[in-house]
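Narrative of accomplishments. A recurring question from our advisory board has been how the design workflow behaves on a single, concrete structure rather than in aggregate. To address it, we present the structure tokens for one chain from the evaluation set, followed by the sequence designed for it. No filtering or post-editing was applied between the two.
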């Protein structure tokens, strides 16, 4: 996901001027109100908007920049990695009590015929 923001001439991002698109940020900067729907469908209306936006940005010595959110994807990757590690730990955990049903995790399909049948979970809970 991308965020658009405005940097001042010192290179600092202005916190009030952020948005999910260039149009959203531009509407916050410009004093005149622009119809967002028309900005999407009318090229001539969009050109007027872009010219006015460029004028205000140059006048204040600002720059509109795109900020890519890599932190979220890194966090998401860590969550997926951690959940995979947790699932692996669960599969490799020693079998005790109620987990005896999962005792055949490492068994091959050929071993299934030679092993004793596992009682239903309800029978294990009653014991």
């Amino acid at each position: 996901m991308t965020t658009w923001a405005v940097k001042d001439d010192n290179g600092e991002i202005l916190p009030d001027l952020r948005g999910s698109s260039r149009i959203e940020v531009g509407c916050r900067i410009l004093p005149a109100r622009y119809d967002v729907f028309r900005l999407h469908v009318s090229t001539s209306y969009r050109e007027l908007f872009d010219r006015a936006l460029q004028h205000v940005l140059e006048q204040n010595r600002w720059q509109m920049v795109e900020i890519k959110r890599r932190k979220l994807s890194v966090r998401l990757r860590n969550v997926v990695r951690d959940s995979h590690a947790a699932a692996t730990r669960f599969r490799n955990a020693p079998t005790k009590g109620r987990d005896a049903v999962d005792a055949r995790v490492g068994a091959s399909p050929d071993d299934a015929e030679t092993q004793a049948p596992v009682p239903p979970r309800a029978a294990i809970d009653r014991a």
